[in-house]
Each structure stands twice: as structure tokens, then as C-alpha cells.
What we know:
By secondary structure, the protein is α+β, with helices and mostly antiparallel strands. It has four domains: 10-148, no CATH class; 160-240, ATP-grasp fold, A domain (Dna Ligase, domain 1, 2-Layer Sandwich); 244-339, ATP-grasp fold, B domain (D-amino Acid Aminotransferase, Chain A, domain 1, 2-Layer Sandwich), CATH 3.30.470; 349-448, Alpha-Beta Plaits. The protein is built from 16 helices and 17 strands. The strands form three sheets. Strands 9, 10, 11, 12, 13, 14, 15, 16 and 17 form a nine-stranded antiparallel beta sheet that branches. It has a four-stranded parallel beta sheet with strand order 3-2-1-4, with no helix packed on it. Strands 5-8-6-7 form a four-stranded antiparallel beta sheet, with helices on both faces. Helix 9 runs antiparallel to helix 10. The radius of gyration is 23 Å and the shape is globular. The chain starts with a helix and ends with a strand.
Amino acid sequence: MNDKNNKNKTKPKSSLVLGTFNSEKIxxxxxxxxxxxxxxxxxxxxxxTMDELLFPFCNSQQDILITNFPFNxxxxxxxxxxxxxxxxxxxxxxxxxxxxxxxxxxxxxxQLYSERMNINISRTAISPYxxxxxxxxxxxxxxxxxxxxxxxxxxxxxxKKYSFELSKKIKQNDEYFVTTVxxxxxxxxxxxxxxxxxxxxxxxxxxxxxxxxxSKTKLDRLIKYIKKNTxxxxxxxxxxxxDKKFDFSCHLNxxxxxxxxxxxxxxxxxxxxxxxDISSPSWEIKERLExxxxxxxxxxxxxxxxxQGYFGPVCIDSMILENNKIIPLLEINxxxxxxxxxxxxxxxxxxxxxxxxxxxxxxxxxxxxxKFEQFLxxxxxxxxxxxxxxxxxxxxxxxGSFEVNKPQQDGQxxxxxxxxxxxxxxxxxxDSIMNxxxxxxxxxxxxxxx
Length: 450
């Protein structure tokens, strides 16, 4: 009996890895006015499958990835075959509903702590994508609340207003934060006189909640739209459309005892305002930052985040302009991010050494149903599926985003998204592997939009 008790005491601590990728909309106050946009139901369904991308944060079979929908068994088997370890269960059996963790807490608790899962509550930590109310509720249920910062502090530091106030302190003077029509007209016109104008929702996210204005006529249309919605509050960050040379981000973690570690940098390439691919930064970025005050600014931002009472993962979006000026702070994402997912994957794909692991996203159009298993088999037959023996290839990392939507009754193409890793040495090698992938997708009658 004593031996059994001792064995339980040394049992590795389990992590519950879970989250929702639309946390910004949850943080946003209900009375805030969204910018004009098209409600894309298919794109929303894809977002609800992206919790699959969190599997790299699991370190053993004791760690459990909780997803909205079942983790595709062929992808799960493949990932485990190449060395990833995790358990998983889903809240729903199929892709029929748009949903999230909220409202499903009792289902989670019941399943997690049944004999089937056999988890010790007192030795369970929660590892969320972002801290939202349902995560706080779950943490209370499993006595893991001390692992999380206060919710109000999370909401505060993720607002564009907070980033704007910090950017003023580090002498970025090209931006404005507006909460009235008069301010939008005044400061928007000021930026438009010299540049194109970006209007960002206070809780917007990459690819959504961003409005590009190239003319006074378009600005006037936005002002008219706001005046029509008097029951909602405008709350926007105004930025010039910077003459960008490099997009990059700094990733760090602040512990609950308020020590911090800078984890590294990521270079991003975007398609419009949406993420396209991400990898370790070029030598040119590293060299430019080493000869600047960039990391002094980062340390200042970290101390401000601590003073606000935040701890946890942080992504600070930055930019280098064509004239080599550094914009140290575009916005703060105080949560996990695609960059951090990229870093975790790179950490686990440590071989071959000195290779680059680029995380990419492709927007797809389907004219007929293609199962993910068929796509995986096609990669394997073409000899471009990642394996330990053949690393300079493609590693798919999400199946749900690929197959969540269904053929349309009107015969129009329907949407999917492919996330994966390309391992390569040079850009030429990366482009060659990507071209092979695009050719195979076309063979499967799948269009590639980006």
C-alpha cells in the first residue's frame, strides 16, 4: 500500500491544454462597435478547429489536449509515430456545431476524472491558449486558479489602447487612439494627408478587425457607418500603413512569481493582414536589432506588464521599415500565439540541426470532399511527408481546418485551411517543397488561394 501511495506522489503533473482562438471577441466589451465586415461562417468554423494546433504544448501521454471536435485519428497516429506525445478528447462528436469550452465544464470534469482518464486533480495544471471566463471557471473547478493571472488584468493588457499608451512612452508618435467620430475624422485625416490609414478595433486580431483606408471618401463612409450605430461605442487604434520591410515578433514568458524569460524572435510573412508563414528571423533582422535599443524597449514593456499584474505567455509584434527604422511595439498579444506554436514545434523538431522549420498556412478551396486521410496518403506516396528519415519535407499539423466545411448545395467551392511545417535550409529549397505541395493539392482538385 505504501509503495502504491509513493508511486502516486511521484506521478508526473498533468496539463490540460485547451483554448479558443477567438479570445479577442470574448474580451471585447459588448457595447463596442465592430468595423464593417462580412460574417464568414465557413471561416468561423475553421477558427473553431484551430485548437488542434496546441498539441505541441503537450509533453507526454499524461498531458491532455481538449478540442472542440475529435482530433483526426490518422493525424494523431502520424504525429505520435514521429515523436509527439499527447492524449486528447473532444467536446463534440462531429463538426455540426459552432461551440467552445464555455458551457461544457461539467462534461469536461466528468470525462477528465473518470476512471478512463485516471488523472490526479491535485497534480493537474491548466495550459490555455488565452485566459477567458470559461478557462477561469475550469481552473476553479480543478483548483488550478493560481496558475492564471486575474481576468481583468488579461483584458487590460490585450487592448490596443494599452499598447498605444506604452508606445507613446517609448516615443512612437505616429499613432492615435480614438473613441469619438470627431477624433477619427481629425486624426484619420492627419494620417491620410501623408499615408494610407489603418483602423484597428481595440480587440481586433490578425486578418480581422482591421480596415484599410486609402482615401478621404472611404474615411467619410466609415464615419457615416459609425454615426448610424449610435448605440455602439467606437474604440479604434489609428496607424499609418507603414512602409514595411520586415514583420517580426518577440516571444517571452512571465512566471507567476514575476520572473521572465525572453524565448526568442519570429519573422512573419503575411498575406494582406492575415498570417501566411512564420520562422526564425533572418540574419538581417538579428543584426539590425543587436545595434539598436530594441531589447531595452522590450524589457521596459515587460516591467509594465508585470506592474499591471499580468503573467503568462506574451507576443510583442514589431516591425522594421524600409528606411531601417524599428517600430518596437505594434501590439501586445498576452496569450499563446502562432509564433509560440512555431517555436514549440521547432524545439521538438530539433533534427536536423541548423535547419529552418517554417510554419505555413494555406487558404484552400474545395469543389468536392477530400478526406484528410487521402491528403496524408498523397503526401506519403509523393515522398514529401515528413519523417525522421526524410526531414526536408512537409509536416501537416491540423486536420480539422482542412475538412471542417462541407460541399455547398449551389456547387460553389467551399473553404478549408492547411497548417503545416516545411523543414528546409534555403528559401529555394522551401519554395521547391511548397511548389510540390501546391501541385499535389491541384491533383486532388483543391484550389490554393494563398
